[in-house]
């Protein structure tokens, strides 16, 4: 079967992997000049943290997200399985209890364990939650490595190609993975602005993703190697995709300093802004729009849920399977 996927973000690449694994002949049209150049996926933190996400997301996200860890381990070399550490400063300790009540699959940790896991944070934090089965990846390396693997498997990438959805209909099956740009045919999609920083510090070493709980400005920090850290991410009901607000910059840095004062001397090496594609219920969907198969609405769970969404799409295409009404049905 010949399949044209529009969009080489994480959704399009995951679909290409699942279609190719079932013998599909896949071509990807991408408006950007390379993988990630124009994709929201470029700005992701890369946390594969399904149990932590249970704090605010549906059970289906927690269940399907667990499958993503093995999937990415099979498709990239950037996955690190070192767990997630959730911390709160003494004055915010009630936030830790609330987080614990809403999540599962963690152990409570105290000064000694925190000192073993993250020696540089041991002086400041005395209680936390450790989600040992969670993982993280470098999303940029992950999508590049996945695209290289797909190329070796025969997937054709056509870059600098801004496809018009009505022009690409032909004999191929068309799969729309354009993210937020698909609002022309998926009218209920909206953008949820996310802002992030890449910082560099040689003064402190953090080994795994840290979530710092705070009543107003929760923060996560993800190591990127060689002293680089991704700090994120805001969640704002706004589709502006270019500029960070002064308030967001102030809050992200303030929380980073609260995690450790050494970050005062860190260098800001990159500022990233994009809008996550989301449906009103913030859950992703696979759905037909006429003859076009659409995979979209990955919201803040692009890396966590694209493997399951791609498998759902592949079952619809190759096995003629009915697409479940909701991911709740698919995850049970
Ligand atoms: C700051 C931030 C932090 C985040 N952190 C995480 C995280 O830690 N974990 C996680 O799982 N998710 C995270 N996300 C969410 C994640 O990035 C998104 O869910 C994901 O990128 C959506 O993927 P997508 O493939 O649907 O869209 P995109 O990545 O935007 O891909 C769509 C692609 O389609 C292309 N395209 C659009 N129109 C056309 C056209 N007409 N012709 C050809 N190509 C076209 C675009 O150029 C783009 O490459 C974060 C997002 C942000 C902004």
Describe this structure as you would to a colleague.
This protein is an alpha/beta fold and 332 residues long. It folds into two domains: 2-46 and 138-187 and 280-330, FAD/NAD(P)-binding domain (3-Layer(bba) Sandwich), CATH 3.50.50; 84-132 and 190-278, D-Amino Acid Oxidase, subunit A, domain 2 (D-Amino Acid Oxidase, Chain A, domain 2), CATH 3.30.9. It is built from nine helices and 16 strands. Strand 12 (219-225) and strand 13 (228-232) form a beta hairpin. Helix 1 (10-21) packs parallel to helix 6, helix 1 (10-21) runs parallel beside helix 8 and helix 3 crosses helix 8 (302-319). The longest helix is centred in the last third of the chain and has 18 residues, at 302-319. It starts with a strand and ends with a helix. The model has no long low-confidence stretch (mean pLDDT 95). Flavin-adenine dinucleotide binds next to helix 1, strand 10, strand 14 and helix 8.
């Amino acid at each position: 079967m010949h399949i044209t996927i529009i969009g080489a973000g994480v959704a399009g690449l995951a679909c290409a992997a699942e279609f190719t694994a079932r013998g599909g002949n896949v071509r990807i049209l991408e408006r950007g000049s390379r993988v990630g150049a124009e994709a929201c996926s470029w700005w992701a933190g890369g946390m594969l943290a399904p149990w932590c996400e249970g704090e605010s997301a549906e059970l289906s996200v927690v269940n399907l997200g667990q499958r993503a860890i093995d999937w990415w381990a099979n498709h990239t070399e950037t996955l690190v399985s070192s767990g997630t550490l959730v911390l709160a400063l003494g004055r915010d300790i009630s936030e830790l209890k609330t987080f614990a009540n809403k999540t599962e699959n963690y152990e409570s940790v105290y000064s000694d364990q925190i000192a073993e896991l993250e020696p540089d944070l041991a002086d400041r934090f005395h209680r936390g939650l450790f989600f040992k089965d969670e993982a993280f990846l470098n999303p940029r390396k992950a999508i590049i490595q996945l695209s290289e693997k797909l190329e070796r498997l025969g997937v054709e990438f056509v870059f600098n190609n801004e496809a018009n959805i009505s022009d690409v209909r032909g004999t191929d099956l068309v799969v729309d993975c354009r993210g937020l740009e698909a609002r022309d045919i998926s009218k209920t999609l909206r953008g949820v602005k996310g802002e992030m920083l890449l910082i560099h510090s040689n003064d402190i070493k953090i080994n795994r993703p840290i979530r710092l709980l705070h009543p107003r400005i929760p923060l996560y920090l993800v190591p990127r190697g060689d002293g680089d850290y991704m700090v994120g991410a805001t969640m704002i009901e706004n589709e502006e995709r270019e500029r960070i607000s002064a308030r967001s910059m102030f809050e992200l840095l303030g929380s980073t300093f609260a995690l450790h004062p050494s970050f005062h001397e860190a260098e800001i090496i990159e500022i990233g802004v994009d809008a996550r594609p989301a449906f009103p219920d913030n859950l992703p969907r696979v759905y037909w729009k006429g003859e076009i198969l659409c995979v979209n609405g990955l919201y803040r769970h692009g890396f966590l849920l694209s493997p399951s969404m791609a498998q759902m799409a592949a079952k619809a295409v190759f096995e003629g399977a009915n697409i479940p009404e909701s991911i709740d049905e698919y995850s049970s």
